[in-house]
Amino acid sequence: MALLEELAPGVLVKGLLPGGAVTIISVKRHGSVGVELVYQDAGGKLGSELLYSDSIGHLEIAPAGLPWSFDADGALFRLTSEAYRIRLAYLFDPLIAVHTSLIEPLPHQITAVYETMLTKQPLRYLLADDPGAGKTIMTGLLIKELMIRGDLRRCLIVAPGNLVEQWQDELNQRFHIVFDILTNDRLEASATGNAFAEMPLCIARLDKLSRNEQVQDRLRQTEWDLVVVDEAHKMSATFYGGESRYTKRYQLGELLGKVTRHLVLLTATPHNGKEEDFQLFLRLLDADRFEGKFRDGVHKVDVSDLMRHFVKEQLYTFEGTPLFPERLAYTVNYQLSGLEETLYQEVTDYVR
To answer: Can you give the pTM of this predicted structure?
Structure first.
């Protein structure tokens, strides 16, 4: 608490301006009821203030000397500096997510994350490598790398019902990232009425979202940094009779694309053999490029910037050896038995 007599030029005073001390330049007293101060803040800016006797008591005279000292808690300072170092670690270690996770990545996994997906802003991508390529590993690396770089706080993973626990376990055990599974209990017990807003790292079942309009209404009220859809080929649409037919899962995919900045689709079977259906599927990633009525022979576009599809023959270890045994396909002739030949003939006649 400061006294009127202590206010003099050159004195440091706290409480006159928020966030720091000021240096008094001149003091003009108005009897015993008040004083007019001219001061200078830490940035060199001058100011003046008229104070009365009841306001002077809230001021504090700062001790002379440097405005900083080295008497803080050393352990706390070390903790703060270490946290800041970890926050900037990605600038010095370009593969920090790899080195801080319990995984042994393969070349195609590193190239997918660090050479392809991380370089795209915003990211709209279809990862369509063959089964066994480790799409979960690549997704976990992407999530952790974005989190370390401060680019991801809210992430939603949408997967078939039988895979949500597997996703939760993989991300927790391999990458030390704890995701919560969206359940009916979480939806009903939400304090704010919207469980999505309370779960920054969430795993949801595909059909729970696609079949429940109330859940979709709550989803529309949220924003996400990254949405990942596993088995994304289930969000299919068909082009039949000159018209596009959209399933509820496909409509969910359109909704997810609107509430997120980054969108990643995972599937090992992106193409069902029909080019028109495939381009409807890619419309989830880029609605502008694949908008409009499909015309055979006209809508042929390069999608290398939107997807990657590696077959097993393209996957190698760091030693250069094939990751999977070579697949050999050849035709084997065999003789039908009498009953088999009769059945085959009768089925063929029925079909004709």
So the answer is: 0.71
